[in-house]
């Protein structure tokens, strides 16, 4: 099958027939080193008119196709088709592009125009929409978990979350983050420190309010680099670590594991830094991510009601 890849997405979208047999191919997201040699050409009047009736995804396919097309609006080689696939984030080998070219060239004249290519690509784009909706559902469905079951979370789940975290964008590849998994012994020390700091704190109704930290099965302390002489760089690094934490939590959520990003006065103390092995001359704690299976199930955790909708936060300028 042919797979269409979008940033962070992969899926199977079509089957190519050749010589009365089905040949299956699996396409993965392209590597950063994929060579793309683009030949610039202006769009014809006909293609501009066509673009008015196309979706934005299809218009992009037209734009890319026209970069490789001849004056007759055709491409005449599977090498050009290969470059088009790469430019549209569909990775294939040259041999696979050869097969697709012959499949799409129904009249066997050795040339493909956009009308030959569009139906195949349209099917791919339509299938990609389903994956996009699934991914977006994951994003909007994530919620903060307040109560966790005791079952520990395996290191493999944590490592996948960190792998996703460090894929976050960061300034000039500064990679300012560090992740520290905390075990039961250190968690107990955190809890003691928390009690000592909060023992005089009270809630509005006058009762003591201290969450039992030892009931949280998973802890990951996250730090960012500090730049005492460059406040702008330090702020940019903090933004990057915040993106990394979001990726971490989404990865956990995708595997059925709930999270909560915590902060507070305890985490700002030197005692806390010492327990974590954090050198405060070069880094600081951004927060702790609690993680574990949600008590009662993550899907039934109460989401915080959003006060604003898209129309309240999105504006358009001419």
Descriptive notes:
The chain is elongated. By secondary structure, it is of the alpha+beta class. The protein has 2 domains: 2-131, EF-hand (Recoverin, domain 1, Orthogonal Bundle); 155-197 and 209-300, NADH Oxidase, CATH 3.40.109.10. The protein contains 10 helices and 10 strands. The strands form 4 sheets. A 4-stranded antiparallel sheet has the order 7-8-10-9. Strands 1-2 form a two-stranded antiparallel ribbon.
For the structure shown, list the relevant keywords:
318 residues, alpha+beta, Recoverin, domain 1, 2 domains, 10 helices, 16% strand, elongated, calcium ion binding, EF_Hand_1_Ca_BS, calcium
Short description:
This protein has 2 domains: 2-131, Recoverin, domain 1; 155-197 and 209-300, NADH Oxidase. Helix content is 41%, strand content 16%. It has 10 helices and 10 strands.
Helix content: 40-55%
Q: What portion of residues belong to β-strands?
A: 15-25%
| Main sheet summary | 4 strands, antiparallel
The strand line-up of the biggest sheet is 7-8-10-9
Secondary structure elements and pairings:
Elements: E1 2-6, E2 9-14, E3 16-18, E4 21-23, H1 45-51, H2 56-68, E5 74-75, H3 78-87, H4 94-104, E6 112-113, H5 114-141, H6 155-165, E7 177-182, H7 184-198, E8 218-225, H8 231-254, E9 258-262, H9 270-276, E10 283-292, H10 310-313
Antiparallel strand pairs: 1-2, 3-4, 5-6, 7-8, 8-10, 9-10
């Amino acid at each position: 099958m042919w797979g269409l890849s979008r940033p962070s997405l992969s899926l199977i979208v079509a089957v190519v027939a050749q010589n009365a047999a089905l040949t299956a191919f699996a396409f993965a997201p392209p590597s950063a080193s994929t060579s793309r040699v683009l030949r610039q050409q202006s769009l014809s009047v006909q293609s501009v008119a066509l673009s008015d009736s196309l979706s934005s995804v299809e218009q992009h396919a037209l734009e890319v196709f026209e970069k490789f097309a001849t004056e007759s609006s055709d491409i005449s080689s599977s090498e050009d088709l290969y470059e088009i696939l790469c430019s549209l984030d569909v990775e294939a080998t040259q041999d696979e592009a050869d097969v697709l070219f012959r499949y799409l060239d129904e009249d066997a004249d050795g040339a493909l125009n956009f009308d030959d290519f569009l139906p195949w690509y349209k099917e791919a784009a339509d299938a990609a929409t389903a994956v996009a909706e699934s991914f977006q559902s994951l994003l909007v469905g994530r919620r903060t978990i307040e109560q966790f079951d005791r079952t520990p979370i395996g290191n493999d789940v944590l490592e996948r979350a960190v792998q996703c975290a460090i894929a976050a964008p960061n300034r000039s590849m500064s990679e300012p983050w560090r992740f520290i998994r905390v075990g039961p012994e250190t968690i107990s020390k955190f809890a003691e420190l928390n009690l000592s700091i909060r023992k005089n704190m009270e809630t509005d109704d006058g009762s003591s309010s201290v969450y039992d930290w030892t009931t949280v099965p998973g802890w990951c302390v996250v730090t960012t680099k500090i730049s005492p002489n460059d406040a702008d760089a330090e702020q940019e690094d903090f933004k990057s670590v915040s993106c990394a934490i979001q990726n971490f939590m989404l990865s956990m959520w995708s595997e059925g594991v709930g999270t909560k990003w915590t902060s507070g006065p305890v985490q700002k103390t030197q005692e806390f830094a010492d327990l974590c092995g954090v050198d405060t001359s070069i880094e600081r704690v951004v927060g702790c991510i609690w993680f574990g299976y949600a008590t009662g199930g993550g899907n039934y955790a109460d989401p915080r009601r959003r006060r604003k909708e898209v129309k309240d936060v999105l504006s358009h300028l001419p």
